[in-house]
Write a structure and sequence with these properties.
32% of the residues lie in helices and 21% in strands. It contains five helices and six strands, in the order βαβαβαβααββ. Strands 3-2-4-1-5-6 form a six-stranded mixed sheet, sandwiched between helices. The chain is globular.
Length: 172
């Protein structure tokens, strides 16, 4: 739960994709397991909190497919922006994209890739329930979702400022 004046960010790692190989990495689709897990992530999200104001999604095929399967479970789907800069982005790039988010958006979802999305979750984690902080630090499986409360504006987002409120993974 977020307090008045706080923002909420929901970070999602794309669902399980087909192995690297003959397909260009950017164009890798979801594997069968990913197609089963992504709607479950969407269902969990639909049942776990308030509506989202915006979804930022890497433009890679596997992240777009993950989002499209998740959004099918949301009763109030937010508008989505497919952002090339999120493809295999590092923490600094992800933070820069966050800082560009409009102030009217209080609840933001970001669908991305590891290691960047996991590193962002770890970087944002400050205080919070020990079990959640530890779990976020331990790893970020495919189709996992973490929600964090952030004080101030998107431009104010800084390492350690976030307070995790939930973590879900397909094995839960």
């Amino acid at each position: 739960m977020t307090a008045p004046g706080e923002r909420r960010i929901v970070l999602v790692r794309h669902a399980k994709a087909v192995p690297k190989g003959t397909i260009d990495d950017f164009d890798r689709p979801l594997a069968d397991r990913g197609r089963r897990e992504a709607p479950k992530a969407g269902q969990w999200l639909a049942e776990s909190g308030r509506p989202l104001g915006l979804a930022l999604c890497s433009s890679a095929l596997r992240t777009r497919e993950t989002w499209q399967l998740m959004v099918s479970r949301l009763t109030e789907p937010p508008p989505a922006v497919y952002e090339d800069r999120l493809y295999n982005a590092d923490t600094d790039t992800l933070m820069a994209v966050l800082a560009e988010t409009g102030e009217a958006v209080t609840d933001l979802l970001m669908v991305g890739h590891n290691p960047g999305i996991h590193e962002l979750a770890v970087a944002l984690c400050g205080t919070g329930p020990t079990n959640l902080v530890r779990r976020i630090h331990d790893g970020f499986p495919t189709a996992a979702v973490v929600a964090l409360a952030l004080p101030g504006t998107w431009q104010d987002v800084a390492p350690g400022a976030g307070r995790p409120s939930a973590f879900w993974a397909p094995g839960d």
